[in-house]
Amino acid sequence: MGTILEVKGLKTQFFTQDGIVNAVNGISYTVDEGETLGIVGESGCGKSVSVLSVMRLIPQPPGKIVGGQVIFEGRDLLKLSEDEMRQVRGNKISMVFQDPMTSLNPVLTIARQMTEGMELHLGLDHQQARKRAIELLEMVNIPQAKDRIDDYPHQFSGGMRQRVMIAMGLSCNPQVLIADEPTTALDVTIQAQILDLVRDLKQKIGMAIIWITHDLGIVAGLADRVLVMYAGYIIESAPVKEIYGDPRHPYTLGLLGSIPRLDAERKKKLTPIEGLPPDLIDPPPGCPFAPRCRFAIDQCLAENPTLQPVALNHHVACWVDTKRGVA
Amino acid sequence: MIPVLIFISIVTFGLAHGVPGGPFDTEKKRPPEIRANLEKYYGLDKPIYIQYLNYMGNIITKFDFGPSLVQRGRTVNEIFAAHLPVSAQLGILALLVALLIGIPLGIVAALKQNTFWDYLGMGIAVFGVSVPNIVLGPLLIWIFALALGWFPVAGWGKPSQMVLPSIALGLGSSAIIGRLTRASMLQVIREDYIRTARAKGLTERVIMVRHALKNAFIPVATVLGPMFAALTTGTFVVEQIFAIPGMGKYFITSVTNRDYAVVMGTTLLYAVFLVIANLAVDITYAFLDPRIRYT
Lengths: 327, 295
What we know:
The structure holds 2 protein chains of 2 kinds. By secondary structure, chain A is of the alpha/beta class. Chain A has helices at residues 47-55, 82-88, 110-121, 126-139, 145-148, 158-170, 188-205, 216-222, 240-245, 250-257, 298-302; strands spanning 3-16, 19-32, 36-40, 63-72, 75-76, 93-96, 176-180, 208-213, 225-230, 233-239, 308-311, 314-316. In chain A, the strands form 2 sheets. Chain A has an 8-stranded mixed sheet with strand order 6-7-8-3-9-10-12-11, with helices on both faces. Chain A has a 4-stranded antiparallel sheet with strand order 2-1-4-5. Chain A is globular, with a radius of gyration of 21 Å. By secondary structure, chain B is mainly α. Chain B has 2 domains: 2-62, no CATH class; 83-257 and 267-288, MetI-like (MetI-like fold, Orthogonal Bundle), CATH 1.10.3720. Helices cover 76% and strands 0% of the residues of chain B. Chain B has 13 helices and no strands. Chain B is elongated, with a radius of gyration of 24 Å. Chain B starts with a helix and ends with a helix. Classes of the chains: A alpha/beta, B mainly alpha. The A-B interface holds A 55, 57, 59, 85-91, 94-95, 97, 99, 102-108, 112, 116-117, 120-121, 152, 154-155, 165, 168 and B 190-193, 195-203, 206, 210-211, 214-215, 288-291, 294.
C-alpha cells in the first residue's frame, strides 16, 4: 500500500485581537491508500484545524497556514491555485462535517445539494447526476430515496442528514474522505448505525478515511492507526491496537484512564486528567502537557520533545519512558 | 387583517375629529347659520359615532370615501383616482432604485468586508440614510438638471422626468437595504453550509448565488413590506420639490385643513397598502424558506 496523502510540518495560526493562536504547530503524518486514520484529542487541540488546513478551508482571515506541505498525487496542495484546489475539493478529497443540522443548506433540496458536486467534477448532466444521487442515498440506507431526494434538509432527521452528508462526500469517488467528528452531534444508537455504514462503505469503495473524534471508543472500532493530538502537536502515533494495548505518552494514558469501563469494579472512580489545556496564544516553553503531567521532569518544562520511535510504527513525543520510569 | 383596519379607522376617526378646529374655520368669521348649514349638509352635526358608522357604511357598501370638505365638489375617490397612480408609479420606481442599488452594495460590502469597497459602500449608505431628501432633491436638481442638463428640473409624465425623483426618494431606502443585506450576508457566509459548499469545490460565484443569496435575502424581505407602503402612497417632500401631482401633499394639507374625509381616506389607504404589502412579504418568506412553507 502506497502513501496517498503526506502532511509535512503543517503549521496553522489564527491572528486574533488577543494575539496569535498557534492552532497547529508543525505536524507531520501520512495516510496510506485505503487506510483509516483516527485523529483524537480534546476540544481545541487542533484536530479540525489540521484537516481544514489540508482542504484549505481555514477562514482567512483570521486563519493562515504559515508553513508546511501537503503532498497529494505528487503535488503540494498548499501551492496550488484556488482553481486547481477546487478540482481537488469534493472530488479527490472530500469532507463530512460535524453538525449535520447546520451543514446542509436549508433552502435547497437534497437533490440540488447532492447533484451540484457531481455535475461539476464528474461532468454528469442533471438527469445522470440525479440518478446517481438516488443510488447513493440508497447506498447509505435512506428509505424511499426516490421520493425523499426532493425533500429539504429540515424534513430529514439528524442521522439521515449525516447519511446524506456521507453520500455527498462519496459522490465523486474520492480517494480520501475526511470526517470531522461526524457522529458527535448524534445520539449513540445513530452513532453506531453511522459507524456500521462507514465500515461497510469502506469495504465496498476502499477510500482512505481520516476520522476525527474525541471518542476513543469510536477510534478503537474503526481506525487502523491513531494520532493523538494535544495543543496543536501530535504527541503519539501508533497502530490502533498499540494505542490501547501499549500507550506510552502520559496524555494518552490519561485519556484512556478517563474512559468508563464495563469490566471495571463498581465503585472504582474514573481518573480524570487534572488541569486545563495550555493557552495556545502564549504557550509555555517545553512540553505543552508538562504542567498537567504526573511524570514530568525538569527537562519537560524546558524543552519540547519531538516524536521518536519506540516500537514499529509507534512514535511518542515524550522525554519520559512511562513504561520504565524516567528515561 | 380586517380587524386591524377597523381599529385603525376608529382611532383615526376619533383623532381627526378630536383635534380642535374644523374644516369650515376661516380667517373671516362665517355667520353661524351658514356654518350650521354646512355642517348639516356634510352630516357633521350628528353624534360622532353616527358619523363614523355612516362613513364606514358608505365605504363598505358603495366604496365611497365621501366628499372632500375643503375642496368643494371633489370627492376623495376622485382625489385617489387622480393622484394615487402618480405616487404609486414614483414609489415603485423608487423601490426599484432602492433594490438595484442597495442589494449589490450590501453584497459587495459583505464579500469585501473591511476593504476599500466595504468602506465606500457603507459610506454611501451612511450618506443615503443621513441626508434627508429635502436636501438630496435640490442637490440632484442642481447637479443633473441645471449643471449637466441631463434631466428636466421638475414635472411628471415623461420617463426623463421620473429619473431624479425616483433616485431622490429611493436612495435613503437603498441605504437601509444595503446595510441590511451586508449584515445578513456576513452572517450567512459564516454558516456551516457555506463551508460544506466550499468543500464540494464549487466556485465562489456559485456559492454566493446559489447558496448564500437566498438565505441572506430573508431578513431583507421583511423591511420591503413597510417600505413599499411608505413609498407608494405618496411622499410629501419629494413630490413638492419636483412638482409631482401625487398623493403626498394630501396627507399633510388634509390634517391642517381638518378635511376629515381626506384624512381618513389617506390613512386607510396607507393602512391597506401596509397590510397587503406585509401579506406579500409573508408569502415571499414561504417562497424563500421551505421551512416556513411546510409547517
